[in-house]
Amino acid sequence: MAAPTVEVVEDDLSEVSAKLSLLLNRLRDVDRVKRRKALEEIRRDVINHGSSKCVEDVVPHLAQRYFDQTPQVRLAVTQVIGMWLLELPDRYSYFCKLLPLLLTSITDDVPKIQQTADELWSKVGFQYEKENDQDFKDRLDFVTQQPPHYPCDVVRPNLGCRELVYRHMSRILPALLRDLTDWVAATRVKAAALLYVLLLNAEDRMTQHLESLLRGLYSACGDEETSVVNHVMKSARLVGCFVPADAWWHLMMADLESIPTANHVMTLTAIVEGCNRSSLRPHLPAIADVLAADDVCRMQEVRFQQHLVSCIRTVLNVSKDDCSSISAQLFNAILSLLPLIENESSNKQAHEAMLELAKVQGFTDQWHLMELHMPDVLNNLHETCNGWSSISHEAKVFTTLVTESGPVIGKHLNVVISIFEITLSKEKEAELRLKLFYTLAELMVNAKYTLDSEGMFAKYASKLLNSVIVPNCSWQAGRTAAAIRTTAVSCLWVLFQSGAVTPQLYLRHADALLPQLTSLLEDDSRTTRLLASRVVKQTLNLCGDALQMDALLGIYPTLLKRMDDVSDEVREATLKTFAAYFSALDRSLDVTLHSAHLELLYSGLLLHMDDSSALIQQSVFEVLKQAAAISPALLGQQVEKIKHMHQRKQYCDELLAHIKTLL
């Protein structure tokens, strides 16, 4: 009787196999109703009449239905897989194939499918507990508490679910990580979503797969699909939540110290975000050292910079005042990043990170943080500044530090001025000097709130004049050299405006400074000529009567040349300088002895009283009215000489009338 029974079974299996082939073809039918019915028949036939071979044949086709655009079809697939996991006679042999399919439905976009999958998964877990109650007896009697840092708004899977995932993870995870790099975007999205659910069920037992898991996270977090990145970052947070920091940091530190990438930093950020504060605390110094390492915080890649700033802020947010012990490293990391960041959003986040670092220290603003760390940073920069070039990162850090430190810089003028003195010497690279001169000029414009915040800037004015500004005013060929002269004279102009230059200080440097100013009046740059003229005016107002007569008489020929300047703005500034010049000359000139010089001055200016510009005519007239007091008779003679040559004689007549009142 045995043989006929076998023949019947074999015939039955043959029929089932043939029917399955037909149903599998129907799964690809355009009509969604037919696809759903085919799924129902597949579930029933496999359970009632199928064999292991049937399950293996059907599973790949069912997996493809998870990409079906019709929610009803995906729901039907979920129900089929759930029922198989609960009712299939040989289901234990196929857990590793069926579990990923059901868990995929938990992340479906349709709430009904999610809910159905959750309910089925919970039933599968409870059934597994019941069927293996002897194995789980101790764990069921003493149920482990939910981890204290468990994700919010997530219901913890039951023990059976967690145990099922643990026992089959070694077979599921490798294939899943491969799918994370699949060329089809939809496959990567499904794989990334499944990874999160898998890790949520695995909890701390994912530790034994950590090395391969981290490699998968590194690769996937740079995906072009936003949904893939979001799911992967959620998975990385679970690593921080469930895996002891001793385990993941040991592996990540080696990766970050070898060839750090934006993906490494991005993964670290997510893991730290999910980490328990107490678990992270022992590793903060090592994490801070890695983040502040030169090859990390000096990275030029925009994406890397964005994620590094985010990582620093995450460390501060998770560890809070624990970060007091690593404040110096984080400060240096942010400070090194700031001069490299060109993205406006990242720059704003970096400044916010600086403020957050100040707050964890108990400060209300970043100035106190600057005051805490600035001495050490400046001393380190001072040690290296002699070897800086225009591309030196230290030079960029120095520029950022002094411009960001606000009033705090006034407390460290000794070191700051010394660095400027060394780096702005004429032996240094021109491009470096130009960049640092711009910084110095910017600081001097706001000297009251920066360099002079402590009222000590005047003490360093002499050193700036003698060692920095005057040497850089001398002529050298090249556009960069011209720009340096312009910036140097700008600094000189601001220095005079600030009141830091006293008559005594100026006179000590007059022999070197006045010839340089005279030379700058003939510079090719309009801006340099304009600023030089203004500085000469300030000089004459400040201590014109104290200047030697030879020095005074050496200025006017160059000033007269500037009256022929192509720029009306320069000519206007020159006339204002002449007003100051005649005031200084009036107090010390011997008219009889220096009448020839005075005659040249009068005649040179009278030419421009007939200028094509009405504004220049009026300005020259006002200056000559003032100058008439020195020698009215001599000026009157000069006016009479040129009056007949002027097209507009109004100013000549008015000037002669004014001279008569002085005689």
TrEMBL record:
Sequence ranges assigned to domain Dynein axonemal assembly factor 5 HEAT-repeat in this UniProt record: 149-337
Sequence ranges assigned to domain Dynein axonemal assembly factor 5 TPR repeats in this UniProt record: 41-139
One Pfam family matching this protein: HEAT_DAAF5
Superkingdom of origin organism: Eukaryota
Taxonomic lineage from the root: Eukaryota, Metazoa, Ecdysozoa, Scalidophora, Priapulida
Protein name: Dynein assembly factor 5, axonemal-like isoform X4
SUPFAM superfamilies, per the entry: ARM repeat
